[in-house]
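**User:** You know discrete backbone vocabularies at least as well as I do. Would you mind producing a protein record, from residues through to fold? Write it directly below this note and I will take it from there.

**Assistant:**
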Amino acid sequence: MNRTTLSLIAAGTALAAVTAFAALDGPSASGAAAPKAAANLPVQRTSLLCPAPSVSDIADTSYTSYTPVTQGASSGGKAQLQAAAGDSADGTDNSGTGKGSKGSKGGKKTADQPVLTPKAPGTPVTGDTSGADAPALIGTADGKFAPGWTVQETTEVAAGTGRGLQGVNCTAADTDFWFPGAGTATERTDYVHLTNPDDTPAVVDIELYGKNGAIKSPLGENQTVPAHASKPILLSTLTDEQQADLTVHVSVRSGRVGASVQALDDKVGGDWLAAAADPAGSLVLPGIPKDATDVRLIAFTPGGDDADLKVRLASPDGLITPAGNETLHVKSGMTTTADLRDVTRGEAGSLVLTPTDQSIPVVAALRVVRGKGDKQETAFIPATAPVGTRATSADNSAKGTTLALTAPTATATVKVTASAGSEGGTPTTKTYTIKSGTTQDVAVPVPSGLKGTYALTVETVSGGPVYASRTLSATESGIPGFTIQTLPNDRGMVAVPRTTEDLSVLQK
């Protein structure tokens, strides 16, 4: 049992003790009022981890930080992003030496200076870096900056492996990650990036699963990530097997890390593959582009039983079954794929996976290609959690932003707020109704007088659940560069148990 598990048990025991104290010393059961529901309060502190952006010397990366205005949040606080120690993805040191990077006002900065300083909630702020020596970042926010803090990392690579537009939401640290859709084929250069925000080293195992099951990769065991450091690991160094579709499992033996996979292709560009939602019997993969020319579903079940799934597309008119791909049989412990080709056929769409009979936990992702011939680009859509109370997307522009909303099981009303721009503009809000079983690419609100980039905040008003993703597009030299980020709940609020007695005596 690792230290993280012990810490969780200790925290649970402490909470149980406090809850028991309130129950024993509260009003008697006869005639007593029912216990009050937990209160939803803004989080007081959060952290985000951004992977080293690129292995290319001609990469240009922008970061956008945004915190939505949250009622009840603290009046004070701050947020910052600092360079992690360790090697960049190309193996060069990024611990404070090297070329440095461009700040948000164009001046040169050394790698140990903040890439940006977040503004007050409600206003996004941007910063820039360039080249292959740009470091991973470790961010912390507290007080009014913490609830719903979002940082987007977007990179443009003009040529070479992975050329195109790459984007990723900086993530919180955790202990378990699933990445269906990675690869070790000849044309692929895939890295798993591990970033440790804590004061002690983290120990991590990386497991690979191919079409025939687990792949022996002893070099993936006991990977040590030093404190406050980042470590990119080239997947092809962990195995001699060359497979186009792998499932990568990152599990932490001690400590915690942030994890993302950078999937780069010699011919069809590349993007970041974010961790899929936790294994579940039903999954939603929202926001397949209308003009997708090739869509591949990659699925994996980690349990001991095979899974049989219904495959349906939530279109603007309702749920439909793709011809020839009505169901998917996922063998236990083996990565399974299905070629859906141009499944959206010019309309908005999201993939909905449900069990045909017995519910077996599955993880899944989509590899999406736009364009044809030598002008193709790739992005990924992992299965994701619903928007819930609120989700946020940073780094949006007046053109090139697509917001996809899907309500797979029940009609929902959704409010979308466009923030002020990073350099000026007035926020605006629109409300949408998404019918049950449909996906809509909504007309995204844009702040009036927009200057710079802006954030979109999505809130579920009624009905649901709602799933969402945002697509950024930028065509250069005829290549349709794009990147897709899903919008799960931003975890800006936390449920705090209410008590009927003053528990301050416990602190004495």
About this structure: Residues 1-32, 88-111 have pLDDT under 50 and may be disordered. The CA atoms of residues 260 and 392 lie 19 Å apart. The longest helix spans residues 3-25. The longest strand covers residues 454-463.
